[in-house]
Structures are given as C-alpha cells and as structure tokens.
Amino acid sequence: MNENVLNRGEHPPCGRFITFEGIDGAGKSSQIAAVAALLRARGIEVEQSREPGGTPLGESLRELLLHQPMHLETEAMLMFAARREHLAARIEPALAAGRWVVCDRFSDATFAYQVGGRGLARDKFEALEAWVHPRLQPDLTLLFDLPPETAAARVASAGADPDRFERERRDFFVRVREAYLERARLAPQRIRVVDADRAPEAIRADIERVVRETLLP
Q1: Which residues bind ATP (predicted)?
Q2: Cα torsion at 13, 100, 198, 62 (round to 10°)?
Q3: Which of 48, 51, 83, 135 stands 20 to 30 A from 125 (CA)?
Q4: How far apart are the C-alpha atoms of 217 and 44, rounded to whole Å?
Q5: Between 217 and 198, whose confidence is greater?
C-alpha cells in the first residue's frame, strides 16, 4: 500500500503522486516529460503540473513569489496558499479519479528554500504543512542533486532573466541543497536522490528505473 493511502487513512486511491525536486539549474524540468511519457506508454492517464502554480490563482501567486520582494513568512504562506488551491483544484481530484500526478516541486521545496535557504522556523513550516495537507505526501519524490556551482552555471547559460530566487548567492543554494538532503535522509523510502551531474540520457535511464521499480508492476 502506498504512502498516499497510509497518510490519508481512506480507501486506496488508484492514482499515484510523483514529485521532482532540486535546486535551480538541477535539470529536473527536462526529465519530467520523459517520466510522463513512460507512464502514458503504460496506458496511465497523467496530470502534469508545477508549483508554485498549476491553477490560474497559483500562477498569479507564482509571479508574485518569483518577482516581488516580500517578508519571509509572507513568502511561506503564499507558497502554501498556492499549494492549497493546487491540491483542491487539481491534485486531489486527479488522484481520486485514478490519474497519476507528476509535479515539478511540492512541499519539500518549501522546506528546502524557505526553511533551509531563508531560515523560516521549522515549527511554522510544519504547522503550515499539517494544515494544508496533513495526510498527503507524494508516493515518490525524485531529488535531483548536484553542486550549486554547476547548477548556477546552467542557469547562467540558459540566458533567461533570472527570478529573485535564481539571483541568490551561492551560500543560499548550499543551504537549500543541505536541507533537501536532510529531508531525503528523513524519508528515504519516498525521496530518491538522483545524481544530476551527469548526461541527461544517464539521468533519464536512472529515474525511469526507479519509477518502474517503485510504482509500476
């Protein structure tokens, strides 16, 4: 029985929930389509989304979060506000209907960026998480891990205007990476660390193997 079921205490849903995590520039976004294609090839209906975002309100909040300076606690609460809407409008209905959800970031990102990176008090994060999704965690989280220097070089080479997170200093991303790895140590069955400092083809083969071994018959 998957973690979704255990945490909800309800009848088992047919859908599964997969999230992708990692610091900016880790390369996770380019692999999400590959996992979605793998699932669809198995006849699985997939709901693909991202956080913050995923709904009209969530996308509006995303713009504020990525580009407007704000107090740390405001930032954390807006992250969870967007998440609550995302859960209500897309994630929970999809899982209940038997669809699999593949999402770019979820609450692990808030722990890494706001708690680890910015210093939000852990008890405040835990209170928000317990309020917004008390019995729901992803069935599988793929954490793309690589040195911050490599990630920064990738972001710079992309040539896009950096958002306010991408403009943070190296020490910020060192703390974010450490927080991600701490989260993985606390939930080793759910969070699988992927060496993202490799060729995309090797990473794709690795994550497809993990998905097959953990979630597919």
Answers
A1: 22-29
A2: -110
A3: 48
A4: 12
A5: 198
